[in-house]
Amino acid sequence: MRERRATPSKRAAPAAAKQAGRANAAAGGALAAVLCVCAFAMLVRAEVAVHPYSGAGKPPMYGDYEAQRHWMEITVNLPVREWYFNTSANDLLYWGLDYPPLTAYFSWAFGKLAQVVHPPLVELGTSRGLETPPSKLFMRASALVSDLTCFFPAAMAFCALHYTGGTSDRTVALLLVLLQPAPILVDHGHFQYNAVCLGLAMLAALCAMRGRHLACAMLFCAALNYKQMSLYYAPAFFFWLLGSSWKQSTTFLEFVLRVVKLGIAVGATFALCWAPFLTSTEQLFQVVHRIFPLDRGLYEDKVANVWCALSPLLKLKLWLAQSHLALLSLTVTLAALIPIAIVLLRRPTTRNLLLGMTASALAFFLFSYQVHEKTILFPLIPLSFLVLEMPLASCWLGVMSTFSMFPLLQRDGLSLAYTALLPLFTSLSLMLTSAWHGASPATRAALVTPSPAQYSHEPLRC
Fold it and tell me: Which end of the chain is more exposed for a tag (fewer CB within 10 A), N or C?
């Protein structure tokens, strides 16, 4: 009896099943790699969190840890109209709220949670300087949750979309981004919530990479309304969006419409964030005054910027009034931003956006008025996302940024965490980037996804 031959569709079925199985296995392996990297990064953060924090056991003012706790106390116990005003219940000289509205809402949300989980943490007046084990656990956990929900998703999404060479390359990039020692030591050692604004800013950059300009503008405005130091990125985003809108427009009218849409998105985001403080001009001006004070000086402590480096030779603080120092720093900063603006207007690519964010933030860090040591995080983070494209620059800036903050970290009792984390990051960076850099040029070129912003015909999407 003649055997029946298998039809082409029947022969193709096992092959398709095998291919689907391999694809599922690869996806499962990629997910497992990402989860392992995130788990290790969270473990490192938790290990750093057991060390001392800013102002631990140092009354009466304590430090940044107490400032963040105090803002939770103020926002959940006082009406919104009193958050930024000096009252009998809100002494602005004791860590008065001096960040934009989104930080206040963020503190309110965690304060409400604290009222349920550990009420003594936010009791008005009596909670000052509270350093009990449950209160420390809550505060440290809040920083971990903020990092996990804001910065981790931005890092994972960027590495998944920007690097296309395979699971190993995405894993290496994600590992080196999440193990940057400077943000870990500041947020989980010294104690702050920089991961929120940095995560929002990088999500904005990710939206720019995907051609979603309106979402990019709104997310950056959210970052700016969380922490005013996000202003360091403003020139980069402004000129990139302007240049990209011009490149993608076929007529001048279309360009104007794109810019108007971006303006509406920015205005709506600011209006939403500032709505409770728009009830009177007094409220509005008080918030602005608290966010941008001019009476704190040119720089603080041992910050690695130009003005601090020149201070042994040029006593600018003694020779010039504060207003003149502010004008001088503004002039030099604007001059440093001119080349960045030109490049972004002429070539608004994703890579140039990240480099522009780094250069713009460095210009502010080196030359602007009222600079903190911790603002070195702002030029560091965008460059760290290009770790496989610019491994030497990314890793070098990561090491030097951490080193520049050593006086601050030493004062906080974080010398041990610094000594452990910096060599870990340096050794991993040298090992992993050297292995990647040794690949063929064709392999390295395939790792980077072309940006939609490079193509002038890409439509504007919201």
Answer: N
User: pTM of the full predicted structure?
Assistant: 0.87
Over residues 81-108, the pLDDT tens digits come to 999 999 999 999 999 999 999 999 999 9
Which residues are bridge partners to 334 per DSSP? none
What is the identity of the amino acid at 294? L
For residues 111-150, one letter each, b for 16 or more C-beta atoms within 10 angstroms of the residue's C-beta and e for the rest, the string is bebbbeebeebbeeeebbebbeeebbebbbebbbebbbeb
The angle that helices 64-77 and 101-117 make with each other, rounded to 10 degrees, is 80
Closest of 446, 402, 442 to residue 420, by C-alpha = 402
Query: What confidence tens digit (pLDDT) does each residue in 405-447 have?
Result: 999 999 999 999 999 999 999 998 888 877 655 555 455 444 4
DSSP H stretches of helix in 275-390: 281-291, 306-310, 316-319, 322-346, 350-367, 377-384
Residues 111, 96: Cα–Cα separation, whole Å: 16
Helix (H, G, I), strand (E, B), or coil: what is residue 261? helix
Q: Which residue has the tokens 């809402």?
A: 105
Q: Kindly state the tokens that stand for 198.
A: 């940095």
129 DSSP 8-state letter = T
Taking the C-alpha atoms of residue 268 and residue 333, their distance in angstroms, rounded to an integer, is 29
233 closest CA partner among 353, 348, 328, 397: 353
